[in-house]
């Protein structure tokens, strides 16, 4: 039911269970949304560092027309940080609303337009996002991982030929194209390869008590953070602990058939110097708990197997269950 028509004002930030813990959550899309919806209930200092390579839908159109960062994943992160009161629910609904009809506005999300409008008005991505957060009464801050427009490219091995020989490796360009590629992704790159990291994001990651990586689209939302040189250095040199939240299943077209070990292998292939403290997996994804424990231990981390999946059968994490895991880890 819509909350429009009700008059409410922000009630201020909820008292977090762990007010002194600073967390940086990295990712994009629905995966980051779940992490933020969980973390906002647990910690008092929360910052989302969001991938900015989307080239499809409303974000792609605005990026192409105005030469700006794609706002869609930033919008979703802001919506995730809205409170559970009338004010927060209303603004989350407003941000996510997409125009219908058959004209040029069809498919545009109101939140995307709001963000791009403030970018034009203020001329600064970070200040504009902070202003949107203040308007929403957001329980945290949202930052782009980079301030340079960028694209994702991937080397994709096509399916085997009719005689069983390995398929050819082809270069695919664009987040949408990579996510929907037919074949197995060998590796990804960013174009340009050295985009300018958001300075505030670098500082946040460097100084965080915990950094949370994942869940989400592995090659197009999670791993890209490791490909921004300055952000990568901050991750590797961070004084805090790093928790990796694994996906519940492989994603068609991007990580089809991937299990926990495959997700971890892809992560370390792109960042072998990454130091992980904890890996979180749902029991329904773990076929060999002892084997996965050994694999995780080989990387110097510990495995936490916990029921974090939603009850509706979808491959999405339940924020309340994920919050309980974070609460136990970070206490």
How would you describe this structure to a colleague?
The protein has helices spanning 29-39, 57-66, 72-80, 86-96, 110-122, 125-136, 175-179, 199-207, 218-222, 229-237, 260-270, 289-298, 319-330, and strands spanning 18-27, 43-50, 141-144, 151-157, 169-173, 184-191, 210-213, 241-245, 278-281, 302-305. The protein is α/β, with parallel strands linked by helices. The protein has three domains: 16-50 and 192-331, Rossmann fold, CATH 3.40.50.10680; 52-144, no CATH class; 151-189, no CATH class. The strands form two sheets. It has a seven-stranded parallel beta sheet with strand order 3-2-1-7-8-9-10, with helices on both faces. Strand 9, helix 12 (289-298) and strand 10 (302-305) form a beta-alpha-beta unit. The radius of gyration is 19 Å and the shape is globular. The chain starts with 17 loop residues before the first strand and ends with a helix. Residues 1-13 have low confidence and may be disordered.
The residue-averaged pLDDT reads 90
CATH homology group of the largest domain:
CofD-like domains
The number of helical runs is 13
- Spatial ordering of strands, largest sheet: 3-2-1-7-8-9-10
Task: Give the overall silhouette.
Answer: globular
Going by CATH, the architecture of the largest domain would be: 3-Layer(aba) Sandwich
The helix-strand sequence is EHEHHHHHEEEHEHEHHEHEHEH
Percentage of residues in DSSP E strands: 15-25%
The biggest sheet amounts to:
7 strands, parallel
By DSSP, the count of extended strands is 10
Q: What is the helix fraction of residues, given as a range?
A: 25-40%
Secondary-structure content class: alpha/beta
CATH topology of the largest domain: Rossmann fold
Q: How many structural domains?
A: 3
Rg (C-alpha, Å) = 19 Å
Cα-to-Cα separation, first versus last residue: 36 Å
CATH uppermost class of the largest domain? Alpha Beta
Residue runs with pLDDT of under 50 for 5 or more positions: 1-13
